[in-house]
Design goal:
Chain A: It is found in: Membrane. Chain A: Its main location: membrane. Chain A: It is an enzyme of class 3 (hydrolase). The structure holds 2 protein chains of 2 kinds. In chain A, 48% of the residues lie in helices and 23% in strands. Chain A has helices at 2-43, 147-155, 157-202, and strands spanning 53-56, 71-76, 88-92, 98-109, 112-118, 130-131, 135-144. A 7-stranded antiparallel β-sheet of chain A has the order 1-2-7-3-4-5-6. Chain A is elongated, with a radius of gyration of 30 Å. The mean pLDDT of chain A is 83. Chain B has 3 domains: 1-34; 66-172, Immunoglobulin-like, CATH 2.60.40.3930; 176-285, no CATH class. Chain B has 7 helices and 9 strands. In chain B, α3 packs across α6 (257-273), α4 runs antiparallel to α7 and α5 (228-248) packs antiparallel against α6. At the A-B interface, α1, β1, β2, β4 and α2 of A face α1 of B.
């Protein structure tokens, strides 16, 4: 009997532990999220996490270093003339787009530093050299593949709608369990009533 | 009862677990969306492809077509004895703007069809249907024509530059205008003046008033060169002419014909006396 009881107890124990783990994870994520949101809101500018910015990768010009649809961490700020050949830099192009390419040549001209850049997957260097003033960050070597796809999808209208589905399902499930609990309560009440009514009729 | 309680407890746990899972998912999703959002967030990657191909570099026709804005029927006559400013409008009569400037030349053509460039200049690049006025100063009476070079490769002619000529612009003295009917009857041109003048007028029907004035100058010059006696003779003759003309001057010109004929013979005789003078005067009219 005791063995059976132990077996029965083990299952709830696992569930309890899982529940606890989830609770810890949930509160950690919540705290971190609140912390970073508060810090980046207070400091202004783009959201940062430990001094790094996260960027989603839109195309495959730097493939093998990082994939299309991944998220990369770049470190903004600092002396923008410090980069050397081989560094991967993020810079603002003419059309205000951010581009991350590798420095293939550093050109010093008239006291200014210019970088000739090239995508690893491109067969030619970029047409225009990049001025050091237009460099915004340097690639930190950290990338999460495929997360960019998810983030981009979540930002879209359809994505936002789909994101709501787990929440709606959860609510439905909650509603369903409440309804079942209530109906069970009703049933037990009816049984009690019937049980109490039966002896009265007999008498 | 115990069973049902256990079941509800289990369900509660499940529900809690699900809620936590979904909450974590939402939190992470929102966090990532927030962290990757911003003013210029997404790193955009361009892809450059380079290719090599050949094309013939050079000039090609820009599709422009220059025309002179002038009346086809009407004759271009500008009156003025002194320097006159002549304006010739030009238009780029095409749907395409010019890709560069082009040149024009102003030519003066005399009776011997010898063209002489008076001035030249450039027409700036004109947009489609844009107009430009070529202005030049005509300091001598005569026939003028403006030549405009079309743009390189005009109508696919890359060998030579296509030229377009304007209509002839006649610059005449206003006095000459009054004398125009006389051109048909050269005999009547016996106006007060030297005998040589008469001769040249009869030879060249199209001579203008300017020619006459130059003739007079020429005759004056030759008079200086020629001997004084001849000069006196000459002047005497002209005075006689004047006198006869004064006598014959009347309301109708036909009545003068006879007397003028007489004058002509007289003047011709005087010319024979100094042939050099005559040649000089002819030269000056050329």
């Amino acid at each position: 009997m005791e063995k059976r009881a132990n077996k029965k107890r083990k299952k709830p124990n696992f569930m309890i532990w899982l529940n606890r783990v989830f609770t810890v994870v949930f509160y950690t994520v919540l705290t971190l999220a609140l912390f970073f949101v508060t810090i980046s809101k207070a400091s202004g500018g783009e959201p940062e996490i430990f001094g790094y910015q996260l960027k989603t990768v839109q195309s495959g010009s730097m493939e093998q270093e990082f994939q299309t649809g991944s998220i990369i961490a770049v470190k903004p700020g600092g002396d923008m003339t410090r980069f050397e050949k081989g560094d991967v830099i993020t810079f603002v192009a003419e059309d205000q787009k951010l581009i991350t390419h590798r420095v293939v040549e550093v050109v010093e001209s008239g006291g200014k530093t210019l970088y000739r850049t090239k995508g690893d997957n491109n067969n030619a260097a970029d047409l225009n050299p990049v001025r050091s003033e237009n460099v915004v960050a340097v690639y930190a070597g950290f990338t999460i593949p495929y997360l960019g796809y998810f983030v981009d999808f979540a930002k879209s209208q359809n994505g936002a709608f789909l994101l709501l589905i787990p929440g709606i399902l959860l609510l439905c499930y909650a509603g369903f369990t409440i309804w079942r609990a209530l109906s069970e309560l009703d049933k037990s009440k009816k049984r009690l009533d019937q049980a109490s009514e039966a002896p009265q009729s007999e008498s | 009862m115990n069973k049902t309680r256990l079941q509800t407890l289990k369900k509660k746990r499940k529900w809690l677990l699900m809620t936590k899972l979904v909450s974590i998912f939402y939190l992470l999703a929102i966090s990532f969306i927030y962290l990757t959002s911003g003013s210029a967030t997404e790193a955009h990657y361009n892809f450059v492809t380079s290719d090599s191909f050949e094309f013939q570099a050079g000039t090609w026709w820009d599709g422009s077509h220059l025309v002179f804005l002038e009346d086809e029927e009407e004759e271009n006559v500008v009156k003025g004895c002194e320097a006159v400013k002549v304006k010739i409008p030009v238009q780029n009569d095409s749907e395409y703007g010019m890709m560069g400037s082009t040149e024009y030349e102003v030519h003066q053509t005399n009776h011997k069809n010898d063209a002489q460039i008076v001035t030249s200049g450039t027409i700036p690049a004109l947009d489609a249907k844009e107009k430009e006025v070529i202005t030049f100063t005509a300091d001598k009476p005569g026939n003028y024509q403006v030549k405009v070079y079309q743009r390189e490769g005009y109508e696919d002619n890359y060998e030579t530059r296509t030229e377009t000529w304007s209509k002839t612009i006649k610059v005449v003295c206003e006095e000459d205008d009054e004398l125009k009917p006389d051109e048909s009857t050269p005999e009547e041109k016996g106006q007060p003046g030297s005998a040589d003048e008469n001769q040249t007028d009869t030879e060249e029907k199209e001579s203008t008033d300017s020619d006459r004035s130059s003739n007079e100058q020429a005759s004056d010059d030759t008079e200086e060169v020629s001997q004084e006696e001849e000069q006196s003779q000459d002047t005497d003759m002209s005075e006689e002419n004047k006198a006869t003309e004064d006598e014959t001057e009347g309301p109708s010109e036909t009545e003068d014909d006879e007397s003028e004929n007489v004058e002509e013979t007289e003047t011709q005789s005087s010319e024979e006396q100094n042939p050099d003078e005559d040649e000089d005067s002819r030269d000056s009219t050329k």
